[in-house]
Amino acid sequence: MEGNLLAVHGGGPTAVLNASLYGVIRQAQECGIGKIYGAVGGSEAILKENFVDMGKLPDEKIERLLQTPGTAIGSSRFPLEQEHYEAMASVLKKHGIKYVLFNGGNGTMDACGKVSKACQGEDIYVVGIPKTMDNDISIIDHAPGFPSAAKYIATVTNEVGADVKSLPIHVCVIEAMGRNAGWITAASALARKKPGDAPHLIYLPERNFHEEEFLADVKRLYDELGGVVAVVSEGLRNEKGESIVPPIFKTDRAVYYGDVSAYLAELVIKKLGIKARSEKPGLCGRASMALQSRVDREEAILAGREAVKAAVVGKTGVMVGIRRMEGEGYRIETPLIPIEEVMLHERVMPETYINERGNDVTEHFVQWCRPLIDGELPEMVSFKDEAAQALKSRI
Amino acid sequence: MEGNLLAVHGGGPTAVLNASLYGVIRQAQECGIGKIYGAVGGSEAILKENFVDMGKLPDEKIERLLQTPGTAIGSSRFPLEQEHYEAMASVLKKHGIKYVLFNGGNGTMDACGKVSKACQGEDIYVVGIPKTMDNDISIIDHAPGFPSAAKYIATVTNEVGADVKSLPIHVCVIEAMGRNAGWITAASALARKKPGDAPHLIYLPERNFHEEEFLADVKRLYDELGGVVAVVSEGLRNEKGESIVPPIFKTDRAVYYGDVSAYLAELVIKKLGIKARSEKPGLCGRASMALQSRVDREEAILAGREAVKAAVVGKTGVMVGIRRMEGEGYRIETPLIPIEEVMLHERVMPETYINERGNDVTEHFVQWCRPLIDGELPEMVSFKDEAAQALKSRI
Does this model's pTM top 0.90? Predict the structure, then answer.
């Protein structure tokens, strides 16, 4: 087949970004596309003409993509200007690249749309593949990357919950990623199997955070259970819309904040005199291969494959979507979505997924999220429950 | 067989504490011991006579112990006094308990020795099972719990390393558990396969921490690699022997410190103006079932079984040891160790396991640690390396 292909990754990685790359490479090979290039280090690499010829790599290296977190071709957060898009179009022509696949979140889809426009009139087809662990891409049901992040937070909440229940002497604040959207934080609710299971409290960035209410919630649960597990978003803000953690450093480009979990653990210690600790798995949660969701991996591969198929038939300026189909059971379809419908829109949790008090999610959210994490979590066993029951039956 | 058995857990859980309980229950069943009790909530439960009859539980619940973190019978950090030991002896007699298994770290072994003494002259046999993720029990090669903690930190360092290499724009400080002993922090070195792999820096509590040297190390590596992964112990201290993090709260019983990783990330941002973040998996590292080491699980079950066998033949005041056998390959034996040799001695990393600069471990340590983590970690694939090589061969 005439013409070469270029895969480009933008922004932070997920647990399945390489799975999408795998899908792109396999589909391109099956379509008999000429050279299968990867941009080494994000969209910046297009300008630098820094490409790797992935079609020449040994097969076992391609297979190993499925067990490698991050991205094998690298990514960037390089800020692009209009002049860059035009320069990119020239580079693509120069290298005989006919198919360009941009894999990323909202910012990358913006770039994808602009490159597509800059290539208008040329024999070049630019297609987007969604990716964001935060799940903040609009229009689609969810983005590849989120189901694995959801499975990770649900699993660690389940496991840390069993640990804390064993030795219930403290409050444990687990910090989840997602600065503006609470999807990952919310997914910790999937850890629950019966009343009293962790997480006991969930705080999302979609609602203002009130320290006094948090402390009252913690105190009440600590008195009842001994061990309390609260899952909080890294981006919690107060009623003024400011981060609950004071900024630690400012540069021209960014403001750096301390860790929300460490801040809240400290608050519990100081204000309630209760032992508290913070757990902040952070990047571990988007890099864990053991806790990758099978559904997520398969959808990520599919999205990569569908993007190549779309480009090959001449689609451009579109993103592969994920739409949940109506009816029994969990099934998806992958419609192509005009990129301008996606570009730079951030999706947060809808009100119907958050409880009234703002310290938990609703059953509605749990129903939506459960199919994404690839089956049930293992059920933990506690003989403390047996003992309590035996005691009850004696009384 | 005449006489009942009681299993008691002390201190913080590990990933395989329930595996040892599994070994105890299975061996006790095979020996035909009368009732198989668990103390519900640590040694305190003996005083409260709060026992659960585990022999009566359905088989599938016993099997589920192998995939449950924490401890199914609960634990405590209850401080015991001499009067408690004598009271315990009475309770044991009252319930016809002939065999007592204490599973825990240094503090629990101290209790184990004292209960054994308090039962002298009685037909009661008290045996210890080692357990500590920190690996700070003396005399033995390593304790059940440590190999899984080692596999966890090596795996997350490997995975976060792949993530950071994909988008090398920051310094990432991973905090490992072990306040006084650096064994877990050190085990992150097992993530390395080739030069340049994470972890790039390792700081242990056995050596004084110098902020200026740390910053110089980070700056040098950041200039070279872009992305830097440093693994640090939660218990780092300065030359005065004080925590590098100022205390945040003091009570009569304890002093609480902030998180070392958050502190160091902030230091990098403020002093070097480089983006930095902290990852503190914390309890996730001792609760992860997916990253449990197979070697660890098998040794934990074995230690539980051997403890029951020892008690049944009338041994008391001993702990089941783990000794690495001489010769080719990794094999262990489980000698019984007089408890007074173990009691309250804390084992830290020997000097031969730490490099001269105090920012890494030695190959000697890696050789010792590698057999414990159950085979190699999966090899990550990066096409950035291919691209760099291709570029080199073109020049």
Answer: yes
Residue B341's Cβ-count burial label (10 Å; 0-12, 13-18, 19+) is middle
Catalytic residue among B53, B59, B134, B252: B134
Cβ distance of B256 and A275 shorter than 8 Å: yes
pLDDT tens series, chain B, 395 aa: 789 999 999 999 999 999 999 999 999 999 999 999 999 999 999 999 999 999 989 999 999 999 999 999 999 998 899 999 999 999 999 999 999 999 999 999 999 999 999 999 999 999 999 999 989 888 899 999 999 999 999 999 999 999 999 999 899 999 999 999 999 999 999 999 989 999 999 999 999 999 999 999 999 999 999 999 999 999 999 999 999 998 888 877 778 888 999 999 999 999 999 999 999 999 999 999 999 999 999 999 999 999 999 999 999 999 999 999 999 899 999 999 999 998 767 889 999 999 999 999 999 999 999 999 977 788 899 998 777 777 677 65
What span, in angstroms and rounded, lies between the C-alpha atoms of B177 and A215? 27
Chain-chain contact of A278 with B280 (C-beta, under 8 angstroms): yes
To test the contact with chain B by mutation, choose from A53, A177, A257, A381 the residue with the greatest count of B C-beta atoms within 10 A, namely: A381
The ipTM assigned to this model is: 0.96
